[in-house]
């Protein structure tokens, strides 16, 4: 009798799980360094760099975790946790990411920590939601490795602001063409030993001629935007006064396209997968990704541009696609061993994945 009851139960269990038509819906957990996972992560990093309103491009450092959910009616959603590192390329710099170098520990590295939902559909990846945060390496860690290395300084420190003004003035004084105005202060370090301040800042060409500017406030940015990126060092001289060194790279002009301004309202439809011309739409027909671009003045953080100000909040997405890919959740016991599509690779420690550069 007991046997029979048990059998009945078993039969019922089996019945439960075999009722759904088609394959069982559940998540799979590929290895973090699985090529497909890496593709999803690279799409995520590409998204960061295309949507960052300021600061520096980021590069993938490590994939911490990954879960893949089937999505109705088609596609799969990669739920990813990734670590990034700041590069030396400003976001306005057209240099491809592969040619950008990682900001080294000695320069006071900055790490990004992101949660992404990336949809894979018809072989293409598109970002559904992004949430990032970033932080500079700790002062202790920098000094442990390099006691004399300068730390990141607050971007609104009066010495920093002064150094940027002096460097920009020096740049405008030595050139013939347009007057360039400040777009943002991107990075600053106070170098105590040499009593100098190193700054990195972005500039843009205006309709004023550098040599003839009287009131910079009256200059307007060109319709055909031309940005530049400068590094300057201002050193106090013992005898008084200061030395100003500045070097700027002026980028190619940007064609006057209907370029959405960072006002949040138009940022959503930009969520195209790399190489894809179509905006990614959620089932509800709304732009899938949520992206919050805050006003610059409010977003100014103490020492670096925190990714959090550009990528926060996944609310609009959770309601749209959350239900779509959590519906078919089944107990994990139902699928003891679904082999990864790449084949049965015996992975000892599938996650977190490898560190591509260095760990902060
Ligand atoms: C990027 O690097 C590649 C290979 O090193 C080189 O061929 C290419 O010219 C570089 N591109 C830029 C824009 O620096
Ligand atoms: C810099 O900004 C912070 C936060 O906005 C503020 O608390 C601080 O007083 C500012 N420092 C200077 C020197 O303006
Ligand atoms: C600046 O302009 C003057 C007059 O137009 C010209 O003679 C000179 O070569 C220019 N200098 C540079 C560095 O372009």
From TrEMBL:
Single Gene Ontology BP annotation: acute-phase response
Pfam families: Cystatin
SUPFAM superfamilies: Cystatin/monellin (SSF54403)
Domain of life: Eukaryota
Protein location: Secreted
GO terms assigned for molecular function: cysteine-type endopeptidase inhibitor activity
Spans annotated as Disordered: 257-286
Keyword Signal: yes
Keyword terms, alphabetized: Disulfide bond, Glycoprotein, Phosphoprotein, Repeat, Secreted, Signal
GO cellular component: blood microparticle; extracellular matrix; Golgi apparatus
Key word Transcription present: no
Stretches assigned to the Cystatin fetuin-A-type domain: 27-133, 144-256
InterPro entries named among the record's database cross-references: Cystatin_dom, Cystatin_Fetuin_A, Cystatin_sf, Kininogen_Fetuin_HRG, Prot_inh_fetuin_CS
Transmembrane segments annotated in the record for this chain: none
Signal peptide: 1-18
PANTHER family: ALPHA-2-HS-GLYCOPROTEIN, FETUIN
Name the UniProt record assigns to this protein: Alpha-2-HS-glycoprotein
Native species: Monodon monoceros (Narwhal)
């Amino acid at each position: 009798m007991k046997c029979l009851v048990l059998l009945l139960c078993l039969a019922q269990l089996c019945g439960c799980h075999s009722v759904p038509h088609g394959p069982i819906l559940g998540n799979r957990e590929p290895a973090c360094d699985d090529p497909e996972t890496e593709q999803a992560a690279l799409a995520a990093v590409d998204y960061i760099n295309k949507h960052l309103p300021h600061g520096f491009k980021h590069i993938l450092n490590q994939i911490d975790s990954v879960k893949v959910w089937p999505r109705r009616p088609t596609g799969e959603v990669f739920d990813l946790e990734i670590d990034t590192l700041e590069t030396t390329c400003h976001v306005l710099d057209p240099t491809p990411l592969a040619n950008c170098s990682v900001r080294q520990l000695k320069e006071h590295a900055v790490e990004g920590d992101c949660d992404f939902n990336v949809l894979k559909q018809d072989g293409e990846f598109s970002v559904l939601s992004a949430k990032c945060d970033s932080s500079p390496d700790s002062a202790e860690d920098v000094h442990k490795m390099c006691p004399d290395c300068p730390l990141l300084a607050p971007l609104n420190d009066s010495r920093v602001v002064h150094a940027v003004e002096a460097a920009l003035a020096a740049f405008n004084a030595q050139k013939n063409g347009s007057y360039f105005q400040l777009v943002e202060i991107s990075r600053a370090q106070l170098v105590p030993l040499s009593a100098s301040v190193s700054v990195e800042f972005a500039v843009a060409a205006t309709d004023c001629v550098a040599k003839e500017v009287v009131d910079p406030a009256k200059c307007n940015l060109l319709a055909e935007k031309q940005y530049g990126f400068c590094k300057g060092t201002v050193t106090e001289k013992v005898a008084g006064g200061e030395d100003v060194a500045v070097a700027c790279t002026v980028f190619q002009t940007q064609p006057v396209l209907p370029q959405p301004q960072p006002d949040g309202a138009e940022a959503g439809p930009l969520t195209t997968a790399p190489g894809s011309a179509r905006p990614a739409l959620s089932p509800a027909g709304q732009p899938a990704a949520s992206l919050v671009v805050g006003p610059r003045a409010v977003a100014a953080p103490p020492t670096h541009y925190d990714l959090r100000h550009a990528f926060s909040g996944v609310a609009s997405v959770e309601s749209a696609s959350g239900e779509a890919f959590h519906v078919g959740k089944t107990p994990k016991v139902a699928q003891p061993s679904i082999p990864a599509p790449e084949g049965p690779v015996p992975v000892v420690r599938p996650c977190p994945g490898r560190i591509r550069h260095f760990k902060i």
